[in-house]
Design goal:
Structural class: alpha/beta
Largest sheet: 7 strands, mixed
Mean pLDDT: 88
Number of domains: 1
Helix content: 25-40%
Keywords: Membrane, Transmembrane, Transmembrane helix
Distance between the termini: 28 Å
Length: 398
């Protein structure tokens, strides 16, 4: 969600801390050639021989919330590792968090995090138990408040161009007494912070005990590299936009590759994907049809072949080979990758923003009305569930 950043654009794959970190061009070129040929053959096979999928033969039989039917591409951690928490842990977390959330100081956090991502950030911080929390992009301070509820006694560093106290002049905001603000006249971009000095200031010897939260709408490839260079292990990206959407290059976009389960796209309007996408926009605000997904030459990666950055103020066209290089770099440092599921099915929350066809199953499914109400979710304003954008947690290593 918006956090007030307006920084100069830097090209995809560049870090102010570590330079360009790509050196697999030859391998990527060969792999890309194989993928393109395979994709071409598969698409023609689909067009010529496959019958119309039953779910799009008749809109009257079409389910409006078919989770994952258009693919849910995740980057692949080494050794196939998975996060330690379970579905039961998430449900238990919801039971604890709903009463906390109702005490939030900013009731209407428009352009900021809604309920789903507030819960996700709180849950991850509670589970990781960091000694220091860092956020890049604070807006009015809601995310700072969420981090404080998760870790009541731990210090927070908040990096944000405008100090949240400025918003207090016009309405609710949150300023934390145990937070070091790099804001206003003291603002320094995340990539330019002297982390050695700050870690010494807070007595941090082990940077794997630090959780970094990004909600600054900057190129996530660049932020990933900067975090690696700084030695941080636990990262959360709030706006993890799907391919074809958003105002910055995201981890979800980078992970969307033909060699990943649920990844890659067909730009043919007559393909299975093209026909299925054509049915989604009437119901789902963020659904993307083939004309919006693909550029004039079939560029589907990023946003129509572009790396967007800095609240959509900057963008650069990249090749599919460069996109693949970014993916391979991410995977080479990846220990864990987990996208927060939606809290509850749209039939319960009445949300109509994100498209379930590109999303994992929710924590609370459509037939679990009793559980939804038991957890107190039914008492929340339905607009609070409209801010889901695949928040992602990563554990990385240098």
């Amino acid at each position: 969600m918006a956090s007030g950043f307006a920084r100069s654009w830097r090209a995809a794959g560049r870090s102010s801390g570590g330079g360009r970190l790509m050196g697999v061009g030859g391998l990527c070129a060969s792999l890309l050639a194989v993928l393109l040929i395979a994709g071409f053959l598969m698409e023609w096979n689909e067009l010529l021989f496959r019958p119309t999928p039953p779910q799009i033969k008749s809109l009257s039989s079409f389910s409006s919330s078919d989770f994952g039917i258009l693919g849910v591409p995740w980057c692949r951690p080494k050794n196939g590792r998975k996060v330690p928490w379970t579905h039961a842990d998430l449900v238990q977390g919801l039971q604890e968090f709903v009463p906390i959330y109702k005490t939030r100081p900013i009731k209407n956090n428009r352009f900021g995090m809604g309920f789903d991502h507030s819960f996700g950030l709180w849950f991850i911080a509670r589970w990781i138990q960091p000694d220091l929390l860092i956020e890049s992009g604070a807006f009015k301070g809601h995310s700072t408040w969420v981090l404080r509820q998760a870790m009541p006694t731990k210090p927070i560093i908040s990096i944000t161009p405008r100090h949240p106290e400025k918003y207090l002049q016009k309405g609710p905001a949150y300023v934390d007494s145990n937070c070091k603000y790099l804001a206003g006249k003291n603002f320094v971009d995340f990539g330019n912070v002297n982390w050695n000095d700050l870690m010494d200031e807070f007595g941090i010897k082990d940077r794997s005990k630090v959780l970094v939260f990004f909600d600054d709408h900057q190129n996530e490839m660049r932020r990933f590299q900067q975090a690696i260079h700084a030695g941080f292990s636990h990262l959360v990206f709030e706006d993890n936009y799907d391919t074809g959407t958003g105002d910055h290059y995201s981890l979800r976009q980078i992970c969307d590759q033909p060699l990943v389960k649920g990844g890659g796209h067909s730009c043919s309007a007559m393909s299975k994907e093209g026909r299925l996408r054509a049915t989604r926009q009437e119901k789902w605000e963020k659904a993307v049809d083939i004309k919006e997904l693909c550029g004039p030459a079939g560029e589907w990666w990023g946003v129509r072949g572009e790396v967007r950055d800095n609240f959509n103020h900057s963008f650069e066209q990249i090749t599919q080979e460069q996109h693949l290089e970014n993916f391979m770099l991410i995977e080479s440092h990846l220990d864990l990758y987990w996208e927060l599921p939606p809290v509850a099915a749209p039939s319960l929350t009445q949300q109509s923003r994100y498209d379930p066809a590109r999303t994992t199953y929710p924590i609370i499914r459509g037939n679990e009305t009793a559980l939804f109400d038991q957890l107190g979710l039914g008492n929340l304003d339905k607009v609070l569930f409209n801010g889901y954008t695949q928040m992602v947690y990563l554990k990385v290593f240098p």
